[in-house]
Amino acid sequence: MEGFKIPGGSVEIWEDPTEISRRAAEMFVGIAREAIAERGRFSVALAGGSTPRLTYELLASEEYVPRVEWDKVHFFWSDERCVPPGDDQSNYLMAAEAMLNHLPLEERQIHRMRGEDEPADAAASYQKELLEYFAGEEPRFDLIMLGMGDDGHTASLFPGSVVEGDREHLVAAPFVTKFDTHRLTLTLFTLNLAGQVMVLAAGAGKASALKQVLHDNRDRADELPARLVRPVNGERLWLVDEAAASELG
Ligand code: 6PG
Which of 11, 22, 100, 226 is disulfide-compatible with 96, CB 3.0–4.6 A? Predict the structure, then answer.
């Protein structure tokens, strides 16, 4: 594995998506164990899309299940599509099928974004749920998992849609013109409150965006939302494969 430091974190270049997934699973276990030891519970916001699926499957495998006190884990989402939970586009459904349905969890540990509701209402109710979970403290997830699109979006923060200075909203329901639909997403403010952000990016399709995102010049910043993810009191870790890193030079 090659790696290098970036402001506020590091980039690790692994051979392929399988290696990224194994590293992500190991990081998940390590951060979970530390959070549970220190605070008695672990809060994680799961990434959507397809890249994290193998990580979730690993975490639900016989190799990993014994390594985490699952009854102390609370699952949230970084973003969700505005669809019902049974829709094959649902980020909840992907995580449930790959992992949650195979873990010894209670309903109270799964904090689903309600994609089936009116978007603004769903965002408001999720914000309320976050404030209740964090019980008036700063909503600081122990771990936020993210992916990155070919256009540099992350979660459902798409180019041109990020309100950088918004410190009031923890959750937003932006209209995404690219898909002609609303999405639900944690805001940049919430992402940057995290203790640890882990971004998984694999495949040659991500190479151009990754190069621009990691070259930390501030111009076009909001056009590449993934570049804005940098926890204020936390770390960011990019787990990328050689194909996605092919333009890093
Ligand atoms: C979503 C995701 C999104 C995703 C990227 C990468 O709801 O689609 O949250 O931000 O992480 O688009 O998606 P892939 O992992 O499928 O490349």
Answer: 100
Using alpha carbons, select from 77, 20, 12, 75 the residue that is nearest to residue 47. Answer: 77
Kindly report the pTM of this predicted structure. Answer: 0.97
Question: Which residue reads 């404030």 in tokens?
Answer: 131
Going by pLDDT thresholds of 50, 70 and 90, the confidence category of residue 165 is confident
Atom of ligand 1 nearest to the CA of 154: 10
Ligand 1 atom showing the smallest separation from residue 80 Cα: 7
Query: Which of 93, 146, 162 has most ligand 1 atoms within 8 Å of CB, for mutation?
Result: 146
Predicted pLDDT of residue 223: 82
